Amino acid sequence: MTSSEEEWGTPELDYPEEHPLHGRLNLNRFIFCAGCLIGTAITSITTCLVERGLTPKDYAIVSGIGCTGRTSGCFKAPAFHATHGRAIPFATGLKLANPDLEVFVLSGDGDLFAIGGNHFVHACRRNIEINVLCNNNGIYGMTGGQLAPTTSIGDFTSTSPYGNIEPPFNLVSLAAAAGASFVARWPGYDTLRLRESIFKAMDNPGFSFIEILAPCFTQYGRKNKLGDAVKMLEWLREQVVIDKDCPPHEAEYSHEKRRIVCGEFVNNPREGFTQKIKRLRETAQSRRK
Amino acid sequence: MASASKKSSKSKLILTTGNYASAEGAIAVGCRFFAGYPITPSSEIAHYMSRRLPQVGGSFVQMEDELASIVAVVGASYAGAKAMTATSGPGLSLMAETVGLGFMLEAPLVIVTVMRGGPSTGQPTKASQSDVMQTRYLSHGDYETIVLAPSTVQECYDFSVRAFNLAEKYRTPVIVASDGIVGQMMEPVSYHSNFEVINRKPPQVPPDKYQPFEIIDDDLIPGMATAGTDYNFYVTGLTHDITGSPDMTPETEITLVKRLCDKIRRARPDINDWEELYVEDAETVILSYGINARGNPEAVEQARKKGHKVGLVRLKTLWPFPDELMERLGKLGVKKVLVTEMNYGQLIREVERFRHLGFSVSGLLVPTTIPFAPSFIYENLMKEVNR
Q: Does B78 touch chain A (CB under 8 A)?
């Protein structure tokens, strides 16, 4: 602990020493608005890590830029805050160089699907064994409430003052179409189902994607008159429909229709990229003899 | 390519291209990760790596673009691998932002850029030296770059080795600025192993005491923890203090930026390298680098035979710029420096900074794709001598 950390202070209640959040509960690391579901996304991951008995040598956390981009700093772990949109290729490099690592990417919808969209589809296609969790708030929170590729039609943002005219991505359909071998979507408040899916993502020997719905009351709520954190959670809950048997291309994501289908849509384990590279090495080395 | 693996026959020369030699040099010094995206005239490095890396237990991945390639390399470096990518001007432009991350996270990594004509798509299949300033000022912000410039196929091999050693020693991205000719021409080369292998400084304290950017030694280089060990650490492209935590105070920015620059600046005597001929008594000196320096010895010898006091300098490292070489030329009493470049004037601006040392600076600057012939150099050298 150095001067800058001390200035920000640490609460009297802290996680135990070995916990991935130990020493991180200060305002320098936890910069999020009170009531934001980013916190539950973080604790859902840490709970899974702790329950599996994983220690820092077993995992790595990568994030991009933005509100959720700052989450990597909350983990007492090998944690990386990459360039904007580039969390997935950073994680790809980590995983390829050390396939034993359990690699998590936790980043936002703007980071992963606007500036980083190309990396997402190719990581799905490659089936690289990383777990990508997208904290979807439908807006650029930290940057000042601008239009995201997940903003609903008609909604107001700093750069859509007359209402959004672009249709949003349906992240579940996109991930499934691109070849992700595990795909789920949950509201951020449903931590039990979320954790269950994180465990399944960790067990999946390929690319796993979980979309976490996490409304931004500071930006989205204010600009669209949706109220405070609690009101926005209710707003979200009224739209969430859980349908476990829904095919991914039918899993609606529509604030206009007030229908967001949640569940696990793809669980189709198949050999991951690092395993394929391992076999490729054997081929290369046997041919060399 | 097959003979590349036969490391036992060290003295044997094989005929190969600069790009293959760049790749084999990297493997020889321990590179086990390559992420890249095809781009002429660098693609043969990726071809070679895709075949060789699996043989030696490494990983090759063809990424979706250059942005992803360089980020994957930073990631692999932080998982403990010696990692590289290869590209050319347009691809290097795309890598700019994350190369900045590499400097900020102090990630050892190597980029080979095989220079071609520009701007924009330019001359994909031709050579140039027009990325000299791009290699220096690629990313935004203050930092110092290490750039090596091979002029032979042998140097492609040797400079790959050196690039990794410098990257690991100084915890920084290192760029090898080759070009479309050196990269694709064939010359005899020795895949020797007469070199030391430098590995990054590991953490100097146990995990519970570790701060990712704490400076313990005089070299200003922090010990590097990697993922997959017992060390907890957080690294960010944000301005950070020694804990790795973001800190937006001016003091932290000043401390960090000064250290990032100074760790390279103060190491200039260790990093900078050049070759000289007849400089001791020369009045006129040709200064050049890379493929375009190959015609200089012939031109200089020809002028010497006619009794002119001329000499040459060939830079093997372009950045950090060798200020001490300029001081040496000034002390030796050199009167005129003729800078020759296959561009419209890039490195010459650095040389011009040293006019106060007593020599004039003029340029033979042609944004061409063909290296200068000895006769062309001789002709212009004589103009300079008689000026």
A: yes
Q: Which of B5, B67, B79 sits opposite A93 (nearest CB)?
A: B79
- The confidence band for A6, taking pLDDT boundaries of 50, 70 and 90, is low
Say yes or no for a CB contact (<8 Å) between B236 and A98: no
pLDDT over 80 at B15, yes or no: yes
Residue range A236-250, pLDDT digits in tens: 999 999 998 899 999
Q: If we measure between CA atoms, which residue out of B287, B345, B342 comes closest to residue B313?
A: B287
Computed over every residue of chain B, the mean pLDDT equals 96
Q: Quick check: helix, strand or coil at residue B100?
A: helix
The answer to whether A112 contacts chain B (CB < 8 Å) is no
Q: What is the pTM of this model?
A: 0.96
* CA B80/CA A272 separation, integer angstroms: 21
| Cα angle B152, B157, B161; round to 5 | 135
Domain range summary for chain A, segments of one domain joined by +: 18-288
Is there a cis peptide before residue B320, judged by omega within 30 degrees of 0?
Answer: yes
Average pLDDT on B345-361 reads 98
Of the candidates A76, A81, A288, which has its C-beta nearest B236's C-beta?
Answer: A81
B235 touches chain A (CB under 8 A): yes
Picking from B1, B63, B71, B241 by the largest number of A CB atoms within 10 A of its own CB, the best residue to mutate is B71
CATH class belonging to A18-288: alpha beta
- List the domains of chain B with CATH numbers: 10-190 (3.40.50.970), 274-385 (3.40.50.920)
